[in-house]
Amino acid sequence: MKKLLISIFMLLPLLCHAEDLQSPDGNLKLTFSLTTNGQPAYQLTYKDKPVVATSTLGLQLVGGNDLMSGFIQTDCRRTSFDETWQPVWGEESEIRNHYNEMAVTLNQRATDRTMILRFRLYDDGLGFRYEFPQQKKLVYFVVKEEKTQFAMPADNKAWWIPGDYDTQEYSYTESKLSEIRTLMPGVVKAHAGNSSSTTFSDGGVQTALQMKTPDGLYVNIHEAALVDYSCMHLNYIKETNTFESWLTPDAQGNKGHLQTPCQSPWRTVMVTDDARKTLASRLILNLNEPCKLEDTSWIKPVKYIGVWWDMITGAGSWHYTNDFPSVKLDLTDYVHATPNGSHRANNDTVRRYIDFAAANGFDQVLVEGWNIGWEDWANNSKDKVFDFVTPYPDFDVDALNNYAHSKGVRLMMHHETSSSVRNYERHIDKAYKFMVDHGYNSVKSGYVGNIIPRGEYHYGQWMVDHYLYCVKKAAEYHIMVNAHEAVRPTGLCRTYPNLIGNESAKGTEYEAFSGNNPDHTTILPFTRLQGGPMDYTPGILETQIYTRVKGARFVNSTLARQLALYVTMYSPLQMAADVPNSYEHYADAFQFIKDVAVDWQKSLYLEAEPGDYITIARKEKGGDRWFIGCTVDEVGHQSTLKLDFLDKGRKYTATFYADAPGAHYEKNPKAYTITKKTVTAKSIVQLSAAPGGGYAISLVPVE
Ligand code: NOJ
Ligand code: CA
């Protein structure tokens, strides 16, 4: 009895006032409470199983006067919302946004400052944020640290990458939470460009963090609508099995400069009992504001090739000459320089790519290294590095664009900023105008290296503001943006659908540097892709590559899996990343890349387990074809797929692009088979994916 009393006593003082909220289906339950010292707290259950144990909330401010405790509740409002909206592009043509909401108004009596905690419960998760209304006693404030806790009730399994203020380009580690701190020091920094990427603590991880509880629940912590605030990491406190928010600092070590009225991004906890439902979740998009662009008719999904892989593998160069570092942004320097012979963005090569794109139905051709400044673009912390408008002498911008347009193809612009962000903002209007004047409508931008202004980080508030500034400005010029090395996305593409892609994770380029783990693409859709599409750049069919850095090596994937990624790695922007010669060589397999759609009416998640396998079927928008992709880890996988999603009574020609018997990502990656058969909604097909392999299927109705 004494024991029982003590444990009740230990629980009770924490909770003095409680408010409850349920998800529309009643499975998720949130309890909000104030502790005895007036600190906000919450807990979350799914079908009565604990998902987040009682966790406290609040913010520490620079100069003291924290927003942590001493609150009383002055109001609590509940509402419900149910609407279906149509994304400009997406995994499906309609998205349901259905939630119950509770907004709790709190007043800190000693300072008379007001803060609202807004909670939204969906059937597949929770979103909550801090809101700071306009008020006399709270106008300007500087965040020292946000103290949002996520107390984990069990030693969950997690797929994580270490905390870093500058990059997400890491391989995932699969471990128990209790092992994070032990494994962390062994995690090698991967990023090619950043010399001073910072791991903030030996226990921090990045979001989206995917976990699986011992009860078999899939729990994912991330954030939505990261606007004018710094990016959140999670510090893992082993003693209490708790994650705590850890914001990215600015150059002065502060974590955010705010002025009321304002709010934090949404903190999200997605919960499902089936990994397939995690992939089907639209929680992050739904928590973002509806589209703010009035006219979106100019935004179109893009399938593209690029003058790129040759440079990534080290055969070609971005820079035009080896003669000198570019001392100033002046074309006359280059006109007298000796070409190095390996500059790929030259008229002949680009014409060859334009011809190839036109012949094979691609929309665009990316050309990197077209503009002056690449001789000393990285690692010098050089402020005035590119001007974004002056082509090298061997790149005739007018002639090449005219040639492309005459063939129904566009060139894709490339703006590597080398993180001299001040320099980019100085030039951005001219640069975008230059694009419009020459008929470009999409830009791949990049942020390799340390940020200028020096001391800022890729994920700080200043940079978060910069990325959005570019996206909004680009929209004024009807330009679509695909930003590499930018902060990982948080669903802002709903509000600004001209943000058609981001990198913000280890992409295919790492196959040329160090190799991606064979299970990498079975994890990314659970983590990085929750916030928005990734320009993963799949399609390396010549899986045996020669790189200047590593010599001969294989891409860590079978050839068939490279095709599957066009379906499993959702993006409205898909690159066929290999060189035209490879596609000509593997023309039968290349057919899938030519055929596959980039915009979808419907997506069905047929099989999924993070770190093991993902199989997705998608129906194209505006047509009746279906495409299926499966990507698996180093173990391999057998699938039995029911095709009952096909139209009843209709016949389809199914083309199977599969790993051949004996295929293996390391030992035999190029063994593939292509077979055709007629199938219907009654068909059940058996498929086998090799270790590090996968398969792709196209299903075309027989009229
Ligand atoms: C890194 C990007 O991810 C890659 O795609 C690009 O080619 C280089 N930066 C150069 O901008
Ligand atoms: Ca695995």
Question: How would you describe the overall organization of this protein?
Answer:
Helices cover 18% and strands 34% of the residues. Strands 6, 7, 8, 9, 12, 13, 15, 16, 20 and 21 form a 10-stranded antiparallel beta sheet that branches. A 7-stranded parallel beta sheet has the order 27-26-25-24-23-22-30. The chain is α+β, with helices and mostly antiparallel strands. Among the domains are: 2-286, Beta-galactosidase, Chain A, domain 5 (Distorted Sandwich), CATH 2.70.98.10; 288-302 and 347-504, Aldolase class I (TIM Barrel), CATH 3.20.20. The model is unreliable at 1-15 and 190-199 (pLDDT under 50). Helix 9 runs parallel beside helix 10 (461-476). The protein contains 15 helices and 38 strands. Helix 9 (421-438) links the parallel strand 24 (410-416) and strand 25. Calcium ion binds next to loops.
- Ligand names: 1-deoxynojirimycin, calcium ion
CATH architectural name of one domain = Distorted Sandwich
Rg is 26 Å
Helix-strand category = alpha+beta
Portion in strands: 25-35%
Tell me how many strands there are.
Answer: 38
Task: Enumerate how many helices there are, as a single number.
Answer: 15
> What does the overall shape look like?
globular
The overall pLDDT average reads: 94
> Sheet with the most strands?
10 strands, antiparallel
Helix fraction by DSSP (H/I, runs of at least 4): 10-25%
Cα distance, first to last residue?
Answer: 76 Å
Low-confidence stretches: 1-15, 190-199
CATH class of one domain: Mainly Beta
| CATH topology label of one domain | Beta-galactosidase, Chain A, domain 5
